[in-house]
Amino acid sequence: MAQPDASHAELTAAGISEEFGVQAGEVDKLQMKWSNWSEDIEENKRLVLEDVDEVVEVTPFSGIGASLNPVGLRPRSRTADCLIASCPVFYGWIMAALVALGALIISPAQVYSVGVVLDNMLGDLKKENKYLSRLGISTLYASAHLIASPVILLHTGALAMVSRKTLVTLSGLLFCVSCLLLAMARGPLSLLLIWTLQQLVGPGMLYPALELTLLYWWKARRDRVSAVVQSVGALLGMLLLPMVLSFTACEGECWRPAYTSLGVGLLVPVLLIALLVVEGGALDHDLGLDGASSAAGSMHAAADTALTDTAPSESMALETPSPPVADERWSLHEALTHTSFWLAQVTFSTVHAIVNAFIFHRKDLLTDYDEHFPDDQADARRDHNERLATNLLVLVALSCMVCTPAGLFVRRKEKLLILALLLVSGGILTLVHHPTSNGLYISSVLMGGAFGVTNGYSTAVWEYLFGRSDAERIKHTSIAITSATSGSAIWAFAFSRQETKRYRASMNAMAAVALMLATVDMLALAKPELLEAIVRRAPTWEQLLARRQRVGYFSVSGQLASIGDAFGRCVCSAPWSRTARRNQANPIETEIPPLENRAL
C-alpha cells in the first residue's frame, strides 16, 4: 500500500486549499470547529470518568441492594493488610467469629436477657410508679420492638454513608451507653426510650452490619459457616450472658448494678470487633473466597465482572446456586407479591412470636405450674421457680443451638417451616395439658428446636424459595416483620394474663393458629416455580364448566337430576313433543368454526 507523502503532514492553509479544493476562508472555520470538538470530547470524557468514580460498587457481589459506598472505593488500610497477612488462618474465620461475638453484645436487649430481670425490674420500678404492671412493662418492650423493627432495613443505607468499622464501633459504644442508662431508668418513659435505643443500635444496626460481612468472605461454604455462626451465637447470646445476668441479679435493685457491669464489660468485645473488622472482603484483599488461593479468587472476580458486563441491568446472584437452590432471580419486590413469601413469613412470625413470649414471661408463667408449696414456704417456692426458669432457658438455648444447622440436611426447605409449627404447637399443648416439671422441660426442648429450625438470620429458606440474587434483603425484611410480631405476642400474653389471670387462653389460641398454619403450609407452601407449574396445568374455567355440564361434577343433586331425567325420557318419551325435549348438546361445543380455520 502506497504511503502518503510526508509533505502532507505539514500543509498550510494555502496548501490545504490547493490539495483539497477548499477555499482559504473555510479552512480557518474548519480548524476552529475541530478545536471546539476536541475540547468538548475531552470535557465529556472527564465528566464520564468522574461519574464512573462516584457510582463504583465496592461489593464483589451485586444484587444485595443499593451500592454500599456511592462515593467511591476507600483506599485499602495498611493496618487491615497487616492483620490479614499476620493471621495464621483464613481471615474469613475471624470475621465469622466477630459475627458470633456480635450476638453476645446485643443479648441484653433480647427477650432471653430481659426476661431474667423482668420481675426484679418490675418490683423495683413499682416503688415510684404504683400503677406500673406486667401488662404495662410488656407494652413498653413491645412498643420498642415495633418502633425499631424498620431500622433493620436501613443498615445498608448507613453503610453507604460511613465505613463498616465506624458503624460497628459507634453502634457498639451506643449500646454500651444504653445499658448504663437502663441501670438509671426510673419511669415508663425513660424505659421506653432506652429499650428503643437498644433495639435501634443493637439488633437494628450492629448485628446486621456484622452479619453482612459473611457475604464478602464465603461463597461455597457460606451456608455451613452461617449455621455454625448462628449456633455459636445462640450459645453465647441465649445461654452465656443470661446466665451471668441471672447470677448477678437479685431481689430489689440488684438488677441495676448488673446492667452497669454489662455496660462496662461489653466495651471489651466492642473494642475487639472495632479492632479486627476490616473493610471489603476476600477479593478486595487479593484473597480467594472460602480461603481459596488468590488465583482462584481472581478467577471468581473475572467471572463476576464478565457476568456483570453481559447483563448490567439485572441483579446477579450472590453465588453459583447449588442444585436445591432456585436459579430464578427473584427481587424483593417480586417476592413480596408472591403467596409463598407470605405463607413462609406468617410461619416465621408465628413460631418466633410464641417462643419469644414464652421466654419473656417464663418466670411468671411458672406460677401457673408450681408445686403448690404451702403459704409459709413462699421463699422455697420462689427459689424453686428461679431454678426451674433457669433450667428452661438452658434447654431452650441448647435445643436451638443443636437444631439451627437443620437446614443443611433437609432438601425441601418448606418442610422446615411445617416441622417448626408442629414443634411449637406440641410444646404449647404439652405446657398447657401436662403442667409438671417434666412437661415444662419437654416443652422447652420443643420450643427451642422450633426456634432453631426457623433461625431468623438463616437464608436457607429464602434462597430455596427465591434464589440467591436478593436473598439478603428478603431475609432482613422478614426479620423486621418477625420482630414486630414478636413484640405484639409479648403484649398479647401479658394481656391474657391480666384479663384471665392465666396464660392458658393465649397459649391455646396460639397452638390452634400454629396447627392451622401447618395444615395450610402442607397444602399450599411450595417453591414459586412448582406453584406456577401447577397453575399452568390446572384446568381452565371453560373446561371446569364443560365438565360440570357433562357429569354434574360440582353437584350430587345435579347427577341425581340427570339420572331422573334420563329415566323419565325412557319411560314416557312418546307423549312428549319433540320441541319439549331438552337439547342435551353442550353449550360450549358450538358449531362455529375455530378462528384459526377461518380465512383472514
From TrEMBL:
Q: Return the SUPFAM superfamilies for the record.
A: MFS general substrate transporter
Domain of life assignment: Eukaryota
Q: Where are the transmembrane segments?
A: 83-111, 131-154, 166-185, 225-245, 257-278, 341-360, 388-409, 416-434, 440-465, 477-495, 507-526
- Mind listing the UniProt keywords for this protein, alphabetically? Membrane, Transmembrane, Transmembrane helix
InterPro entries, alphabetized: MFS (IPR011701), MFS_trans_sf (IPR036259)
> Is the Transmembrane keyword given for this protein?
yes
Record has Transmembrane helix as a keyword: yes
**Molecular-function annotations in GO:** transmembrane transporter activity
The protein depicted here goes by the name Major facilitator superfamily (MFS) profile domain-containing protein
State the organism's lineage: Eukaryota, Haptista, Haptophyta, Prymnesiophyceae, Isochrysidales
